[in-house]
Write a structure and sequence with these properties.
Radius of gyration: 17 Å
Number of strands: 8
Structural class: alpha/beta
Strand order of the largest sheet: 7-6-5-4-3-2-1-8
Mean pLDDT: 93
CATH class: Alpha Beta
Low-confidence stretches: none
Order of helices and strands: EHHEHEHEHHEHEHEHEHH
Strand content: 15-25%
CATH topology: TIM Barrel
Number of domains: 1
């Protein structure tokens, strides 16, 4: 995904459905993801995760889904949160990217991975090492990058500090994640401009959770601030089940495709229908 000039769009069916209580079959998931792959509209698909099935039951069949996928040039990304998960993910040739959610909120890191920030950083060291050994590319999501609802200290210097520490491990792919929908346009502009200027040799993408009414403004603001990689989910579904009582959905993938003039309206509507069929 490391391309600092072209737009990179990542669709995230994993993030869209991970918190759904009604279980979706592996066949339905694979049918939809194969439709995403066949469309050739995406650079990468965040398709599943190798995490505890007790924590995220909806992702317990990630291996079964993966077996049913027909790959083309579009790459696959899977989320991992520990050494066991990364070793399992590394056994599959179909996967190119391994995503790790690193929170700069102590409260949320404990909720999300049952670890402190320092413990999570130690895990990340091993995950990066294992990933590279198996020719996988680590992608780190800086969770709570725009603040959090827990009353903890947040500032741009904190974001800088952790990006630098993680980049020093050899990570060149990042996304600034607005896990609970805290970001406003002023913050987005300021943070992306500052990070892109300070870290010119890494790619810094946007993983926004947002109300649908403000999603286009956030896309536009981040793009004008220099961001060239964006995550989304169809119909704005999803959000993190460990964040707040009320999950804030993802940026709608439709908004990204239309804003960046990728794909026809007919293609977008077909993929919306595919997503609806998956969750029906």
């Amino acid at each position: 995904m490391l391309n600092r000039n072209e737009i990179v769009i990542v669709d995230c069916p994993r993030d869209a459905i991970q918190g759904m209580k009604e279980m979706i079959s592996a066949e339905k998931k694979a049918n939809h993801i194969n439709n995403l792959l066949k469309s050739n509209l995406f650079d990468c698909i965040d398709f599943g995760s190798f995490v505890s099935p007790q924590a995220i039951p909806q992702m317990a069949d990630t291996k079964d889904v993966l077996d049913k996928l027909v790959l083309n040039e579009t790459k696959l990304l899977a989320i991992v949160v520990n050494e066991r998960g990364v070793l399992e993910a590394c056994s599959f040739d179909k996967i190119t990217y391994l995503g790790y959610p690193f929170s700069i909120s102590e409260v949320f890191q404990k909720r999300n991975t049952k670890s402190t920030m320092e413990e999570s950083f130690e895990k990340l060291k091993n995950i990066v090492e294992i990933s590279k050994k198996h020719a996988k590319i680590p992608v780190v999501y800086i969770s709570m990058a725009f603040g959090n609802p827990y009353g903890e200290i947040w500032n741009i210097e904190l974001v800088f500090e952790w990006i630098k520490k993680i980049a020093d491990l050899g990570v060149v792919e990042f996304s600034l994640a607005d896990t609970t929908g805290e970001a406003n346009n002023v913050q987005i502009k300021e943070l992306f401009e500052a990070c892109i200027q300070k870290f010119p040799n890494i790619q810094i993408g946007a993983h926004f959770h947002s109300e649908k009414t403000s999603s286009l403004d956030k896309i536009k603001t981040a793009f004008e601030a220099g961001c060239r990689k964006f995550d989304g989910a169809f119909l704005g579904f999803g959000g993190c089940p460990f964040a707040n009582n009320e999950m804030v959905g993802n940026i709608p993938t439709e908004d990204l495709l239309r804003y960046f003039n990728r794909g026809s309206n007919e293609q977008i509507l077909e993929l919306q229908t595919s997503f609806k069929n998956m969750i029906a």
